[in-house]
Design goal:
Low-confidence stretches: none
Helix content: 55-70%
Radius of gyration: 18 Å
Strand order of the largest sheet: 1-2
Length: 222
């Protein structure tokens, strides 16, 4: 754990989470978002800037995911148990955390949109994109989706495929840039899907990917 994140900070954060609800968006001191709650415990300031003791990749993904996941999921015991382990993750393993996020986008989120792609006539292109995972195949799926984007769902899937192309292109860029693009891409896909349906959120399990990014296979910290 980073020396910038003390036991006292953690205790403050746990106490805040136990007595306050997390909103979508920044919120205020009475109901602050995940990053704002962390910063209130660290500095007393209401801000969603990722603190220096925390992974930038994790912070970027957390901001986007917590905003789009359902209220009950965002305020679940599981998620609130995870948050105090996010500060102190540091920035030495950013590439590994980005890889976890990218894998989730390609293998979990985007395949969830396959039924919409099938229904609107670009199923083969979408399936190929998910299997091959290249910018060119994502662009091909985006073109096919755009041609069929005559409904809100098809248009949203088009947005998701464009985001996938950007994310795969970003994989070879510096991590500080790629983390932002990948986080937006993963959430564009999630936002494009049936966001109001509990089944979708259970299937993509956004808390699960944040857990994997936080612990990196080390298991839940005590």
């Amino acid at each position: 754990m980073s020396d910038q994140y003390t036991t006292e900070n953690r205790t403050k954060l746990e106490a805040y989470l136990a007595t306050h609800s997390l909103p979508s968006g920044l919120g205020d001191k009475k109901s602050a978002c995940t990053l704002a709650a962390i910063n209130l415990a660290l500095t007393g300031k209401l801000t969603d800037v990722t603190p220096s003791c925390m992974s930038l990749v994790l912070g970027s993904a957390t901001i986007r995911l917590q905003d789009v996941m359902p209220y009950q999921m965002r305020n679940s015991k599981r998620y609130k148990r995870l948050i105090p382990d996010m500060p102190g993750t540091g920035r030495e393993r950013e590439a590994e955390r980005l890889a976890v996020l990218m894998d989730w986008m390609w293998t979990v989120v985007l395949p969830q949109l396959q039924p919409i792609a099938d229904k609107h006539g670009f199923g083969p292109e979408w399936r190929n994109m998910c299997e091959v995972k290249t910018p060119a195949d994502a662009a091909c799926a985006a073109n096919a989706a755009e041609a069929a984007a005559n409904t809100a769902r098809a248009a949203s899937v088009y947005a998701a495929s464009v985001a996938a192309a950007r994310a795969s292109d970003a994989a070879a860029t510096p991590t500080d840039y790629a983390s932002e693009v990948a986080a937006h891409a993963a959430l564009a896909a999630a936002d494009a899907a049936l966001a109001a349906e509990a089944e979708f959120w259970e299937a993509v399990d956004p808390i699960g990917v944040l857990e994997r990014m936080t612990y990196l296979g080390e298991g839940e910290k005590p």
